[in-house]
Design brief:
Blueprint: H1 6-18, E1 26-30, E2 47-51, H2 62-74, H3 82-98, H4 102-107, H5 110-116
Parallel strand pairs: 1-2
Helix pairs in contact: 2-3
């Protein structure tokens, strides 16, 4: 889906909820993007959204992934069109995932290790 919106979030929630077993319940940690907490969303019964506090990059490890991608592969570029943007993003993502252990190193915070044990 090439857009972010309440409609796209609803579609994602519905599809995600459908992957859970009947006896499973998921807590979904979300940042403060407007479409994550839109009043029009119908949250499935087997999903509980848990919003992060405003501006809390230390609680949202993926922020470091986006920063890494922007700094190394995506900044200071002028791309011709939507297709070029998608291709550049895909190339950047593929280069990142080819770096063994990079995502782990970017997303590992000491508090995560304490919480998961």
């Amino acid at each position: 889906m090439p857009e972010v919106s309440t409609e796209a979030m609803q579609h994602f929630l519905d599809r995600f909820a459908a992957t859970l077993a009947p006896d499973e319940h998921a807590v979904m940690v979300l940042d403060q993007a407007g479409w994550h907490g839109a009043r029009a969303l119908r949250i499935p019964d087997n999903v509980t959204p848990l919003p992060l506090p405003p501006y809390s990059p230390e609680l949202n490890p993926v922020e470091r992934v986006w920063l890494y991608l922007k700094e190394r592969y995506l900044s200071h570029r002028l791309l011709d069109d939507y297709t070029a943007i998608v291709e550049a993003a895909c190339r950047a993502w593929n280069r990142l995932t080819a770096e063994v252990g990079r995502i782990t190193s970017l997303c590992s915070y000491p508090w995560i290790e304490e919480v998961k044990t």
